[in-house]
Each structure stands twice: as C-alpha cells, then as structure tokens.
Design brief:
The chain is mainly alpha-helical and 187 residues long. It has one domain: Four Helix Bundle (Hemerythrin (Met), subunit A) (Up-down Bundle). The chain is 79% helix and 0% strand. Helix 3 runs antiparallel to helix 6 and helix 4 packs antiparallel against helix 5.
C-alpha cells in the first residue's frame, strides 16, 4: 500500500476532529448532569413518548442514508437521490418530534427555563437542544448534497462528500441513542 493510499482525506480528517470535539462537549454536559443531580431540588422525570418515537425515526434515517451511500457507490443515482431525500425528511421529522417533546414537558408542568424551572429539565433542554443543532447541521449538509445531485448536469461520482455526510449522520444518530439511554438510566 502506497503512502498516498494510507493518508486520510482532509474532509474525513476534519470531520473526525469535529466529531471528537462534539464527543468532548457532550461528555462534559452529561458529566455535569450526573454531578448536579445529587443536589437538593433535583426532580426526577420520564421523557415524553415523543422522544421514543423520534429515536425510532433517527434510527431509520441511519438505514436510509446507508442505502443512499451504497446506491451512490453503485451509481444508481435515482435510488441514491430518493434515499438521501428520505434521510433529509426523517432528519427534519426528528427535529420536529424533539421540539414537540419539549412542549410536552411544558404541558406536564416541567418548566425548562426561567422562573420556577428545575435544573433537571434545563439540562434536558441544553443537552437535547444542542443535539438538535447538530442534527440541523447534518440536515443542511444533506440538502446541499441533494441539491447538487439534482442540479448538476455534469455527473461527479466522487463519493467522498457523501461518505463524510453519511458518517456524520451515523454519528448524530449514535449520539442521540446515547443521550436517550442516558436520560432513561439516570431519570
């Protein structure tokens, strides 16, 4: 194997650096959650069912993006476009379900911000809210690549951008599963 073949592509390298930073941020937030929950006034909670449904949605999106990536590598562009579009739709649906879950917290009287809020709910908002921001970043990347797939007259079969977005998408999926399990175990 040549030196060139052993080198990691700069896009992948940058993506892995970003993922490492995101992991450190969420490790810090979940560690702070563990420390803070021993303080007086911490309230126990159960995540509303919408969060379970959103978990199923994001797991399905991990499957659809992998199908899209495999279709791209086989140059089955119609299938690639379809499953990439489905993944973007599922990403938006995940965010909508998460936001609805936050409203459900409020409906149940679990104030997340401002006067009368509880630290436990504020942590849920901070951790899950930051995750939503990262998912939205992934949705934007999906939409940019999808626009290129539909708009380009010249066909470019470089799979690197698709691989990078797919890897990032799998990461935010796995990150949500971690957060979801974390809140279920420590509620």
């Amino acid at each position: 194997m040549s030196v060139q073949e052993k080198r990691i592509h700069p896009y992948k390298f940058n993506m892995w650096l970003a993922i490492a930073g995101i992991i450190m941020m969420f490790a810090g937030l979940t560690s702070a959650y563990i420390v803070k929950r021993s303080q007086p006034g911490w309230e126990s909670f159960t995540l509303p069912g919408l969060f379970t449904f959103s978990t199923v949605v994001i797991l399905i999106s991990s499957i659809t993006i992998q199908v899209a990536l495999n279709a791209f590598k086989r140059r089955r562009m119609d299938k690639y476009r379809l499953f990439f579009a489905i993944t973007a739709f599922l990403g938006v649906l995940f965010v909508a379900l998460q936001i609805s879950g936050f409203y459900r917290f409020e409906e149940l009287g679990m104030k997340m911000t401002g006067m009368g809020s509880n630290s436990a709910y504020s942590f849920v908002l901070a951790i899950a809210g930051l995750h939503i921001v990262h998912v939205l970043g992934g949705v934007v990347a999906l939409l940019i690549i999808l626009a290129r797939a539909f708009g380009s007259k010249k066909r470019n079969y470089d799979s690197m951008p698709v691989e990078v977005v797919a890897t990032y998408w799998h990461f935010v999926d796995i990150l949500w599963v971690y957060i979801f399990i974390f809140f279920h175990i420590l509620h």
